[in-house]
Design a protein that fits this description.
The complex is a heterodimer. Chain A contains 14 helices and 2 strands. Chain A is mainly α. Chain B has a 6-stranded mixed β-sheet, sandwiched between helices. Chain B has a 4-stranded antiparallel β-sheet with strand order 2-1-4-5, with helices on one face. Classes of the chains: A mainly alpha, B alpha/beta.
Chain lengths: 340, 262
């Protein structure tokens, strides 16, 4: 894998670029769309609540009421799904472990859809998603555990089984859903989209995503240790069981809250951590912050493409797969089988 | 520090593995654990460090049962060197060695510049400074073993526990590993417990030896008495000759397996 070489300044510049990526992406993408706004004007409008400047009415409405909540949601969800993927990979010492492959995403989707079926409010949807996400994660962990270890292949197989199970339950919910009323909501939601982004939704999802991400960020050194074999990890003097549980909780929380906000958006949890590792190697001290940053930036870019590439909006999950799958093949070929 | 096991017994279900194992290791002492394949050498290591629970018996550090001690306190005193395996990780050697500092860090803390300095010093002591930026997945078996030893040393322990550190290594790397263990003990007073397949290595570096047998009889005492032709025969079912070889004024013990005992 290529590692950036060069003087002591190179990593610092790279770090600065990565940290700035989501902010730059957000500023540029806010202006993109049918009503286009320059970056300069965007900045002017965004600062107006603080500076008290007079702003153009249309630009203000477009930015504050339409695009800003959506961009913020993309940042939040992208960063969250990426960091959840990175932490699952360290936790299972498995380069293929992601919210999707472990069945967490499908479990959480089922939980969310089940709540939608009963017209529940946003908070109930989230907690239902979280509950079933946990259930899926524990099922995968339990099924794949042999002699106190989760082998790479068993985790992937167990994830497929658990995903299939919740997939079937999802279909069942769709089957019984009212075609006039709940079914369209559920189907559209399942496709994954940011169109419904609102400050209300953000307020309900933000606490879980931010606190989960923060916990993983704080535990990032211990993530390195957790990725060793269990005996080795214990011999580093950490409480392996509690640390694992904390990371699992945080990652599931983030995944479930993200899915509740915008449906099942795949690939980010696989792609972004691997990109980060291509830049930084395996050390989670750098991989975790880089994943948060790049995940946010990437989601903003993809969502902007989803809403402005064609006259009609494309569901964002379709785009992440269209971009993600070939890019991941490229990564696999380049790294000769994804290494952690 | 004194590390001791008292009457350690362990079984997997009904199958008894370890019966009344007892030994103690004082400062700077090296203990070798010998025995045929499958007799439970690794199980013994896992039990004595608390990864597996003794069925009866206990592990003591300075007279205190390790079950009553905090994990982070135990692992500031003892450090474990597992068998080196090529894995999916590509942490650099320095990152890997730095992980050895974790027992000294608080939950949310990152290694400090001082921790990094300790890691670099240990790498220099062990002679692997040149591996610093190399990825562990690209190291040879011998190099990786030295990285794991350095990682253990970075915790600044008083006792190293090594699981077959010289297996799968060529002659030169075997010598390097053995000399390193011996030097740590001589220069820094660090004790060591070493699982090994090689009786000659036990005679070469260890003060004490423990031989486990399938019959559940354990031989324990000073290496020169315990690693004997008779004990080797009853433990391994192999006739061996143990001879002194004089070379450049020093006596080297040589262990020659002659035939499988009937």
């Amino acid at each position: 894998m290529p590692i950036p070489k060069g003087g002591a300044g190179t990593p610092r510049i790279l770090g600065a670029v990565i940290m700035a990526a989501p902010i730059v992406a957000a500023l540029v993408c806010i202006g993109i769309g049918r009503y286009s706004i320059s970056v300069r004007e965007t900045l002017y409008v965004l600062c107006s609540p603080f500076t008290g400047n007079e702003i153009d009415g249309t630009a203000g409405t477009v930015i504050f009421n339409v695009r800003l909540p959506r961009i913020l949601q993309a940042l939040l969800v992208g960063g969250g799904l990426a960091v959840a993927g990175a932490s699952f990979q360290a936790l299972f010492s498995n380069p293929l472990a992601t919210p999707d492959t472990l069945g967490v995403a499908t479990g959480a989707s089922f939980g969310a859809v089940l709540a939608l079926l009963f017209h529940s409010d946003a908070l109930t949807v989230q907690f239902s998603a979280m509950g079933f996400g946990f259930l899926a994660l524990f099922a995968t962990t339990f099924i794949s555990r042999q002699d106190g270890r989760n082998s790479v292949i068993m985790v992937v197989l167990a994830g497929i089984v658990v995903s299939a199970l919740f997939e079937a339950l999802l279909s069942l919910v769709q089957y019984v859903a009212n075609p006039e009323d709940t079914l369209p909501t559920i189907t559209y939601w399942l496709l994954g989209s940011m169109t419904k982004a609102s400050y209300m939704g953000l307020a309900s999802g933000l606490p879980l995503i931010v606190s989960g991400t923060l916990l993983i960020f704080l535990l990032r050194w211990r993530l390195n240790v957790l990725s060793l074999q269990e005996d080795e990890a214990k011999s580093m003097g950490i409480n392996v069981r509690n640390t694992r549980l904390a990371v699992m909780t945080a990652s599931t929380m983030v995944t479930a809250a993200s899915i509740s906000l915008c449906g099942q958006v795949g690939w980010i949890g696989l792609l972004v951590p691997h990109m980060s590792r291509m830049l930084y190697g395996s050390d989670n001290r750098l991989v975790i912050p880089a994943s948060i940053s790049l995940g946010g930036a990437m989601m903003v870019l993809i969502d902007t493409a989803a809403r402005s590439a064609m006259a009609a909006e494309i569901p964002v999950s379709i785009l992440t797969a269209l971009i993600g799958a070939p890019f991941f093949v490229f990564l696999l070929r380049k790294t000769r089988g994804a290494r952690l | 520090m004194n590390f001791a096991v008292e009457k350690g017994c362990f079984s997997y279900g009904a199958r008894e593995i370890l019966r009344e194992v007892a030994f103690s290791v004082g400062p700077g002492e090296i203990l070798s654990v010998l025995g045929p394949n499958g007799v439970g050498k690794t199980t013994l290591l896992r039990c004595m460090m608390g990864f597996l629970k003794w069925k009866s018996g206990r592990t003591l550090i300075d007279g205190r049962d390790i079950l009553d001690m905090k994990q982070s306190d135990i692992w500031k005193k003892i450090a474990y060197v597992p068998q080196s395996k090529i894995s999916v990780f590509s942490y650099t050697a320095l990152e890997m060695v730095l992980m050895g500092r974790t027992a000294h860090l608080r939950v949310f803390a990152l290694p400090t510049a001082e921790d990094r300095h300790i890691a670099e010093t240990v790498m220099e002591e062990v002679g692997i400074t040149s591996l610093r930026g190399k990825k562990c997945s690209q190291l040879s078996g011998g190099e990786l073993q030295m990285v794991l030893i350095a990682r253990a040393m970075t915790a600044r322990p008083l006792l190293l526990i090594l699981d077959e550190p010289e297996s799968n290594l060529d002659f030169k790397n075997q010598l390097i590993v053995l000399q390193t263990i011996r030097r740590m003990s001589a220069e820094s007073g660090i004790a060591a417990i070493v699982n090994t397949h090689y009786p000659a290595h036990a005679l070469q570096i260890s003060d004490k030896s423990l031989i486990l047998t399938k019959e559940g009889v354990n031989f324990y005492g000073p290496s020169k008495d315990i690693v004997s032709e008779d004990n080797m025969r009853s433990a391994f079912d192999v006739r061996v000759l143990i001879r002194d070889v004089l070379f450049e004024g020093r006596t080297h013990k040589s262990v020659i397996p002659v035939s499988v005992a009937g």
